[in-house]
């Protein structure tokens, strides 16, 4: 049964669809865990590319500021609590096992709220054909804002993510 707190919107539908595609969740989580990327920003870049748009530098800056604040103040603490509850549940803590699914649902609701806020920062423009080049350039621009250098497998993760933009678009190179 869908969670009534998670209002349906185009970015959310896109994210659920793309995140469920082969390799996308793994690439997103690898970028999150190894580079500190916000999966919602990654998905926003892909969503815009799906509509034939890139993110202007000023829009990306606004998105990153909103993302940093929300991740630090809301998602990060809930995620840390969920991970701690999971570890405790795996160690046999029955109370943590009962709490874990509720924390997982709360984290998802926090991610959804962030997506709603991020989508509101993107100017409404006419959609064009899917643009994998915009996806690649946007992802590279975003990753360049993160601390540290590229991980060894980053090229592979980016290829998986760029491929998640409509297959009708030509592959960049």
How would you describe this structure to a colleague?
The protein has 173 residues and is an all-alpha fold. The protein has one domain. The chain contains seven helices and no strands. The longest helix has 34 residues, at 57-90.
Q: Keywords for this structure?
A:
173 residues, mainly alpha, TIGR02444 family protein, CHP02444
The number of distinct β-strands equals 0
Give the CA-based shape: globular
Main β-sheet: number of strands, strand sense, barrel status?
Answer: none
Number of helices: 7
Give the tally of structural domains: 1
Break the fold down into its secondary structure elements and pairings.
Elements (H helix, E strand, L loop, with lengths): L9 H10 L4 H12 L3 H12 L6 H34 L3 H27 L11 H13 L9 H10 L10
